[in-house]
Amino acid sequence: MVLSFAWPALAQSSFEFEARSAIVTGPFVVTNDCICQPVETDLAGGGRAIFSFTLTNAGTYALLCSVNASNTEANSIYVDIDREPQDPQTIWNIPVTTGFENRIVFWPENVTPKQKNFTLAPGAHKIIVRGKAANVQIARITLRRLPAAPTNLRVVKDP
């Protein structure tokens, strides 16, 4: 049995944001082209970084970040789109990295973390990152449009 399908064409499939393009408030700082904070904080005391963008096409998007989360004491931040992050719903516990690695944003969901997908309408938006653990470094954030579910699926008999 063979499944066949067609992916629709995507317009405006991704946006990249370098750390230095964020509007940053302390204790976050931008140093060596990265955002980080030197101290562990709660949500209210964490640094804040805002990345603004405008979409022309509605869609479902995921966040992919180039992060350095060197150990289990330096591997969590808060992140959301278009609203202030909430504790504990929007904590991203980043798997430990070896230097900078690209990681997809996951939020806690019951016991198992789940990739967070954002359904966004056309218009102005902002990614809001808040500090939590000390020394997590963020170099770049990519907002990537996810393809729509395949359509016109049909089962084809094996020859």
Explained architecture:
The chain has 159 residues and is mainly beta. It has a single domain, classed as Jelly Rolls. The protein contains no helices and 16 strands. It has strands at residues 2-6, 14-18, 23-25, 29-31, 34-36, 48-55, 59-68, 76-81, 91-93, 101-104, 106-107, 114-115, 117-120, 123-131, 137-145, 151-156. The strands form five sheets. Strands 2, 7, 10, 13 and 15 form a five-stranded antiparallel beta sheet that branches. A hairpin with a 6-residue loop joins β11 (106-107) and β12.
Quick synopsis:
The chain has about 160 residues and is mainly beta. The chain has no helices and 16 strands. Strands 2, 7, 10, 13 and 15 form a five-stranded antiparallel sheet that branches. The chain has a five-stranded antiparallel sheet with strand order 3-6-14-8-9, with no helix packed on it.
